[in-house]
Design goal:
The complex is a heterodimer of chains A (about 300) and B (about 250). By secondary structure, chain A is α/β, with parallel strands linked by helices. Chain A has 11 helices and 13 strands. In chain A, strand 3 (about 50), helix 3 (about 55-65) and strand 4 form a beta-alpha-beta unit. Chain A is globular, with a radius of gyration of 20 Å. Chain B has one domain: Glutaconate Coenzyme A-transferase, CATH 3.40.1080.10. Chain B has 7 helices and 15 strands. In chain B, the strands form 4 sheets. Chain B has an 8-stranded mixed beta sheet with strand order 2-1-5-10-12-13-14-15, sandwiched between helices. In chain B, strands 7-6-11 form a 3-stranded mixed beta sheet, with no helix packed on it. In chain B, helix 6 (about 200-205) links the parallel strand 14 and strand 15. The N and C termini of chain B lie close together (about 10 Å). Classes of the chains: A alpha/beta (about 300), B alpha/beta (about 250). At the A-B interface, helix 4, helix 5 and helix 7 of A face helix 3, helix 4, strand 9 and helix 5 of B.
Chain lengths: ~300, ~250
Amino acid sequence: MKDPPVFMTASEAVRELVSDDATIFISGFGNLYPFSLAHEIIRQGRRNLTIYKHSPELIADQLIGAGCVRKLVMSWLGNPGIGSAHCFRRAVEKRIPQGLEIEEYTHAATTGMFRAGAMGIPFLPTKALLGSDLLAKGRARVKTMNCPFTGEKLVLVPAANPDVAIVHAQRADTEGNVQAWDVLADLRDGAFASKRVIVSVEEIVPNEVVRSLPNMTVLPSFLVDAVVEEPFGAHPSATQGYYDRDNEFFFEYEELTRTVDGYQRFLADWIRGVTDRREYTKKLGPQRLSKLKPRASPSVSIDYGVYGGLTA
Amino acid sequence: MMVIAASRELRNNETVIVGIGLPVLSALLAQRTHAPRLIMIYESGVIDAKPTRPALTMGDPALATGASMIVDFFDGYALFLQRGMIDVGFVGGAQVDMYGNVNSTVIGDYSNPKVRLPGSGGACEIAEMAGRVIIIMPHEKRRFVEKVDFITSPGFLGPGKNRKNEGLRGAGPSAVVSTLGVFRFDSNGVMYVDAIHPGASVEQIRANTGWDIQVGPDAKETKPPTTLELNVLRNEIDPRRVFLGKLD
């Protein structure tokens, strides 16, 4: 079993657990993208990374533009609802800042790879990719087979076991058990599939809080290597219950990064120009942050019951 | 008209898988008009959401608050789509061809594309496994092509090809709804004109389609938007024209 997770800063976690050439899983879908950890990866100048993620969106775009990424394993990369991820397109269309290798799938296949990896089996049979040129003309690492029982056409997706998972979640307790809520997408599978797990959280809560709601735990402490307490760690993506998605930021990013200069300016202002997420949020300013705060909507509490005494 | 016509393709007591943008508007409109028991399932794993605002993305926190169920991504795909629980899905992209194949991967050659598009996302599996598929696409010649540069999401594939032989479980595209009309597919899987929107013409459709598209024997004018449909769409669903504003 792993040693208990260590509570540390984003800078320490990346320094210890993310190396050049690493294969990295990234959590998120609309929310819970670990932007703070990703920015630290850029600041520490990591190179030659492979990103594993069904929908890597802006995090990947920023890492690609900064020259950190050699390869993508994914099924969709754009600026959702707005348009293109420009660094991604420049890398593929013009090899700026460098060429990009893409192992391309569909969401069903990518998330299937994480599920297989999480299950500790070498592949999962699916119906993904059938009829698509991704099977015929793309570079998906899959095999087709006829089911040995029914003869039906199947696509086998290989397990993915990335070196390290970077994850953002709402909270962890003092032991390192991680709880999350909202669209979790591939968070659990991707983390279970990875050899090392770094989780940044909005807050650390007492152990009893987690124990009062065990169904909400997505990652047990013994899966996690490092826990980083990082308020606003997912900005500009959302963190359910804490802050909204900063849609304006996504629009501004799309417009600014249409040119290489624009992206370099973004990199200088928001990533290299700040030492950590605390400085980043100070730069966002209290007004912008307060606009992202949702109205309270606490759930109806539940009761697991306490069971004492000997049974008959 | 495009959103309204697409909404009419949905039936009551169906499960529809949606992503973002116009398909969501069509589904919401159907729910509030002729299909009150239409169940919307988001590709992101949110079931039966009741968002208090039009969502820009599938991961919008407004979708999670108040939804009836949330499952993780692979479960959403495996337990719902692959299991056969989705009656209808929407597929979109940059190009659609005469066989209803949709491209959202590349314009040009895959290894050296002229334009790199975002990719399939979940569109491919929706095209494969939803009971039937509705394709929504603005009608332009560069979009309605004879053969897509790359098949991201399979329709009827091509001449002599068979969906069942390729292992595809769903029936494929039942309609293409564009800014000019509604299109369906014949027994060979070839697209034809089934309805022309008010104000549009067959000549316009042909001028904006990259092959010699035929007009079906029962081709008609699309029923114009009703007052109810327009009211619901403009005043209830998208009052700030977040998505409607992008059209026409």
